[in-house]
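debug: dumping io for the single-chain case to check the tokenizer round-trip. Nothing else runs in this session.
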Amino acid sequence: MDFTDVSLTALRVLRTVAERGTFTAAAASLGYTQSAVSRQIAAVERAAGARLLERRRDGVRLTAAGRVVLRSATLVLDEIDAAARELSGLPAQTGTVRLGWVPSAGTTVVPQAVAALRRSAPGVRVVSREGVTPALVRALRAGSIDLALLSLAPPFRAPDAESPPLVLRTLTERPLCLAVPETHPLARGEYVDVADLRGQRWITGSADGADHRMGVWPGLDERPETPHTARDWLARLHLVAAGCGLTTVPGAMATAAPPGVRVLPVRGGPQEVRRLALARLPHPPSGPVARLAEALRAAAAGTDPGLGEGGGADAGGTAAP
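debug: decoded output
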């Protein structure tokens, strides 16, 4: 095993492949060809003397050896980036926390937490990005983000099967709701009966990836009609307001609905509940990471008082301190 000839570029490529989940997505992110990405991964695997990535039909995942190499690669890359900032005259960003969040958290918990942290700990700098839960879990594992706000659905299993398990804390738990145009017949009552959802038109999330049915009520025993697709929550809600169809929304987003939309509970079937969980790797968090985590818990407590400090671990996870 000899890493003396492994380039920083190869280590960055390994981290990006682990985060993005496929060679194709990593190549697009880095601006490389797929064959260039393959060559860099092959170079790291030769140096390690082991297969670092398990190739599967749905992408790649790190092997046990890959997780060991990635941990060391992340430390090296972070140190190099810190040195580059210092040499360029920029202050070392020791107070920077990298946060990933699912779209629904961006309308409530994230802005409230960041604003509160700016007042209470102005030295902490938050850099955040939006993503779907599987991508955010990969980013955590790859060391690209420090904390992630994930959306979890029943039966609330751990978001991945990798080791060590992520530290998870439930911040909110609310029923899934339905966004309906104010002019729609279903908007006349105070709730929607699940039997009335057959034959409706739906506005969904992206048609590719893990969220291809986001927006359609779970468990419908028919092939849903989905004439409109929009990843952005606000765009989806404005399509609802325009009468283009229905979509699902977390209960916490009711206050963010634009004029022309009613957000209603659904009755008559199994209760659909969604959890917003805070996730991180199981090593002790730095001071800035702990401060942001506390700000996120406080913001969630304001959104859902029943689960502010009382949320525990999700299935397969470890309770967060």
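debug: round-trip ok. Helices lie at 8-20, 23-30, 34-48, 64-87, 109-120, 133-142, 233-241, 287-303.
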